[in-house]
Amino acid sequence: MMKKKLQSGGLKAWLYLLPAILFLGVFLVYPLIDVFIYSFEEGYNSASQTYFGVGLYNYSYVLHDPYFLQAVKNTFILVIITVPLSTGIALLISVGLNSIKPLRNLFQTVYFLPYVTNTLAVGLVFMILFKKTAYSDGLINLLINWFGGKSVDFIDGPYWAKMFVLCFYTIWVVMPFKILILTSALSSVDQMYYNAAKVDGTSRFRTFVRITLPMISPMIFYLVITGFIGAFKAYSDVVALFGTNLNAAEMNTIVGYVYDMLYGDSGGYPSYASAAAILLFAIVLTITCINLLVRGKRRITL
Amino acid sequence: MEVVLQNLTKKFPSRDRKNRGDVVAVNDFTFEIPDGKLIGLLGPSGCGKSTTLNLISGLIKPTSGRIFFGADDVTDLPPENRGIGLVFQNYALYPHLSVRQNILFPLENLKGKDKLSKDEMRRKAMEAAKLVQIEELMERKPRELSGGQQQRVAIARALVKMPRVLLLDEPLSNLDARLRLQTREEIRRIQKETGITTIFVTHDQEEAMSISDRIVVMRDGIVQQIGRPQEVYDDPVNLFVARFLGTPPINVFEGQIKNGRLYIGEDCVLEVRGAADQSVYAAVRPEGFILSEDGPLCCRLGGVEVMGRDISVVSANKASLNPTVRSIISTESTVEDKEHVRFALKPRKVFLFNKEAEERIYCEVK
Amino acid sequence: MENEMDYGRLERSARIRKKAVNALTYVLLVFWAVIVLFPFYWMILTSVKSYGAYNSEYVPKFFTLSPTMQNYVDAFTAVPLGRYLVNTTIFTVLTTALMLGVIIFAAFAFARLEFRGKNILFVLFLSLMMIPNELVIITNFVTVTNLNMRNSFPGLILPSVASVFYIYLLKENFEQIPDSLYYAAKVDGTSDLKYLFKVMIPISKPTLITVTILKVIECWNSYVWPRLITDDENYFLVSNGIQEIRENGFGRENIPAMMAAVVVISVPLVILFLIFHKKIMEGVSKGGTKG
Questions:
Q1: Residue C4 has pLDDT above 50, yes or no
Q2: Which of B95, B103, B122, C140 has most Cβ atoms within 10 angstroms of its Cβ?
Q3: pLDDT at residue C83, rounded to an integer
Q4: Cβ-based neighbour number of residue A121 at 10 Å
Q5: In the beta sheet, which residues pair with residue B297?
Q6: What's the CA gap between C97 and C91, in Å, rounded?
């Protein structure tokens, strides 16, 4: 009797799980295996679905492709600039937010607004703010002129000008999440520690460095890691600013390279795309492993 | 250091939207704390004792009134300039710092002419650690310590700057019963050794009674009574104080003074001189009962609890406000298994309070 | 006496310093608020400037005295913005609804039912969280293409129906419901399914709402997969629509009309945010990431 009930319960459970297993199997597990197979199949033709060899040629092709190298360079610059900068600014703003009472909720709500906006749509606004056209130099150039500088075309101009806009927009987009996490981390530090420090006559700066920072350091670490992973996967904000033809703009990212290889004007090469995607995955996995090694506990969602 | 509180008052704005108007946490508190004494601030939760402590520490500012440390008016000084040490209820040990770093922390804040050399700091920290006997634990992190050890570290951290006044907020509430006994003796010893004026807050009357030089009983922001523990116990000014002190608690009866006699129910228990005829509360300490065949107070016997040294007689009386009447009797007398017991009362253990204000009626009881 | 004077000065200087720090804090906060809000202001402002007025402003103006709604009319007539909005709504509603079904059943099985291999399966599920979307999108693209589901709603929707993370979140929530409720229901002869719908789902409503909102935001803003899988304008979602408008729409570079389109597609989420900002922020701090 007991045994029968258990078995039927088991069967029922699998029934409940069936949709999830089905979808995850078809769209997550199978593709995961398949992408490795693709990456080793040389000369794969997506029309006839044939290939003529197995080996590391795809990787070697990708690693020697100047567009890929450009994309890797862009991505690394983006990561190295935006992650520390956005985390630092977010920390500054969160500390500010935490030290005030009136208007605090209003500020918090305003700061979170970019999170719910469409990256592509707002990217377009940033583009017109920075873009220099025949009709107008754009608002940002107007500001630069006010301060006595010369107009720069940030969208079709020099590499570093473009990189600046990209970093600026990326920081604008990732800030809400960081501010949110840091403000809640800061407010969860028990007031009792601040009282203890106050009684001991600890200066504001010292309280921050010796007490606040160590106590919220796990959260900062978490943000840096998710920030790294997110920035390595940058794509739609780049498209929003510079359009879909990123190779021509010298602004492609690794993810952009993968999609271009898969689809679009230079597309139709799933094998190259797979190899590039796996290289990206290797980078991200390394960072995740470092995270797991250092922290051990806190989960990371990719 | 002598601590003087003058008409100290603290009001908080009310959080209740319907009932605006301030909540008075401490109301017109005046008290002189003699130098080098251990003072217990005692009262039920919400009575304003922690607020008083925070006012003395400077973490909150009084609405009115002044605070003096010796001749210095410290009312407007921030906490760090008052020269106090404060031990928090949950100890507030910085979890990421070792015991040594925790104790060193206050010293590292010193600036200018007060700045100490590294060696001096180490020496002072070691001294403080020795005082509370935690020298072996210096490199551990707070979470590796037991509650009692954390408590000692917190005290060491508060003492390392040699404060003029040491403040302890519910110092024993996070410890288990056995450690509590041990730690309160420890606090007493440390206070005696250093001679620092010490004020601690507690809701546990036994704790306050056992180690304080003076206790201050508070209720709803108002000081009820101040005095030596034994004095307050033997001579409470009102029913609240009488009830708050002592375990088991005092037994309260509905009583009547008629023609110089005190009646509890139908029984005429004592003679009273110097009080008008009126209804009263008659409160009898548990140790104020004497078993006696022909005693005036008759109670229905509920049971007998043997506690070794004494026995506790649990009985019931219609006039009692407590659910049971508890009396402590020495083991020399025996209780017969009968339906009723009769008691005589020790006059010095009986207090009378008027019905309206529950204030003590001072009169001669025989 | 001298001592007291010293204290007084100490306190005064501390108060001045505190005020200065406070003022600086507000300056910083207002500055960042301006950076956050300015693009929104600019997009609304530009969207009500007429095409002619906009292009004649060599130096852009910070306000306009003659606002026009013409750009909004253009946005809906010159390009199929209405179609993009309808598509996105269909996509968002169907994806979210299907996902809720899938994750509720899966979370229920993990939280409530006993079966052999449950723990191993759950660990496998969790490990799937590690897989980045970029890795599996290649094969999915090929799969959907081979199934002839390009330029179709099933092709758009199906790959984003299952979410391991939300299953995990919901399972944790379900597990907090005390066992005694389940046993009480069993004693009364309630079936598992009825228990799920009558007890577990109502109790977990806050989490389900959070998950729903997060998924709606994700769907409304999704760009990469729809871009790969659709090249027929009739199936474009708003993100692709905006990109299409930017590259080919409105004939010449009609920036005001573009901004009108941007405003239109931003409005639904901003309204959703203004209503649910507490829930959204709570949900995101519990388990969302972006960037």
A1: no
A2: B103
A3: 92
A4: 27
A5: B343
A6: 10
pLDDT of residue B293: 82
pLDDT at B112: 73
Of A200, A203, A214, the CB nearest to B105: A200
CA B306 to chain CA centroid, nearest Å: 28
Radius of gyration of chain B measured on its C-alpha atoms: 25
Please report, for residues A118, A234, B291, C221, the alpha-carbon distance to residue C239 in angstroms, rounded to integers and kept in the order given.
7, 16, 92, 6
- How many Cβ atoms are within 10 Å of B266's Cβ, its own excluded? 9
Task: Write out the two tokens for B222.
Answer: 């108002």
Residue type, C38: F
At B336, list the tokens. Answer: 């017969």
* C212 has pLDDT over 80: yes
Q: Given CB atoms, is A17 within the 8 Å cutoff of chain C?
A: yes
What is the distance in angstroms between the Cα of C283 and the nearest Cα belonging to chain B?
29
Q: What is the per-residue pLDDT for C249?
A: 66
Give CA separation, C281 vs B148, C274, C276, in Å: 40, 11, 9
Among C85, C164, C82, which Cα is nearest to C124's?
C164
| pTM, entire model | 0.81
Range 219-238 of A in CB contact (< 8 A) with B: none
Residue of chain B with shortest Cα separation from C14? B78
Task: Enter the tokens of residue A67.
Answer: 């567009």
Q: How far apart are CA B27 and CA B220, in angstroms?
A: 8
A199: closest CA of chain B, how far (Å)? 5
Query: Does the structure show a pLDDT above 60 at C227?
Result: yes
State the first-to-last Cα distance of chain A, in angstroms, to the nearest integer.
45
Kindly state the helix (H) or strand (E) to which residue C190 belongs, with its residue range. none
CA atoms of B126 and B118, how far apart (whole Å): 12
Name residue, tokens 């306000």.
C63
Tokens 């399972």 identify what position? C171
Which residues of chain B fall below pLDDT 50?
A: none
Q: Is B315 exposed, middle or buried (0-12, 13-18, 19+ CB in 10 A)?
A: buried
Chain C residue closest to B81 (CA)?
C7
pLDDT at A300: 39
Answer for the pair A65, A266: CB distance below 8 angstroms, yes or no.
no
Does the N-terminal peptide bond of residue A19 adopt cis geometry, omega within 30 degrees of 0?
Answer: no
Helix or strand holding residue C116 (H, E): none
**Sites in chain A below the pLDDT cut of 70:** 1-9, 44-50, 264-267, 295-302
Q: Residue A158 is encoded by which pair of tokens?
A: 């020099």
Which residue type does C223 have? Answer: Y
Amino acid at C148: N
What integer pLDDT is reported at residue C264 of this predicted model?
92
Amino acid at C208: L
Tokens of A162: 């473009």
Task: Report the distance separating Cα B48 and Cα B53, nearest Å.
Answer: 9
pLDDT at B329: 86
Partner residue opposite A125 with nearest CB, options C33, C42, C284? C42
Per-residue pLDDT at C179: 83
Pairing of strands B84-87, B72-73: unpaired
Residue A221, exposed/middle/buried by CB under 10 A (0-12, 13-18, 19+)? middle
Distances (CA, A) of C90 to C95, C179, C181, C209: 8, 38, 37, 19
pLDDT score at C131? 81
Cα dihedral A20, A21, A27, A30 in deg (nearest 10):
170
Under 8 Å between Cβ of B33 and B69: no
Beta strand B261-264 with B267-273 is: antiparallel
Cα–Cα distance, A84 to A75 (Å, whole number): 14
- b (16+ CB within 10 A) / e for A80-117: ebbbeebbebbbbbbbbbbeeeeeeeebbebbbbbbbb
Task: Count Cα neighbours of A115 within 13 Å in the Cβ-side half-sphere.
Answer: 29
Are A131 and A165 in contact by the 8 Å Cβ rule? The answer is no
